[in-house]
Amino acid sequence: MRHLAAFLLSLSLISGAGAATLAGVDVLRAGGTVADAAVATNAVLAVTQSNNCGLGGDLFCLYYEAATRRVHFLNGAGRSGSRATLEEVRRRGLTGLPVIGPATVSVPENCSMSAA
Questions:
Q1: pLDDT beyond 70 at 5
Q2: How many helices (H) and strands (E) does the chain have?
């Protein structure tokens, strides 16, 4: 897979699709934050690589904030559904969660993380 990496002064941005990388760079050039660029990059990836980065998926972002000299991680991992309790799992006769199937589907967090 070819990656387009963009390096601007002390900044780097990379994604699996050139159009997505350029979208993130455009946001940064317009004065957006790294978090804004991550959302823009992921939005384009939802179109260009929807099997990997669809809007119904999760969102993760690791970035360094120079002003505070801290590394931040945005964790948009899907959570369990509101009725996915231990009691419900036991009621269904499961002793563990299967590898595939509806019992292991998480609630997508990409959209809620993008809005944050």
A1: no
A2: 5, 4
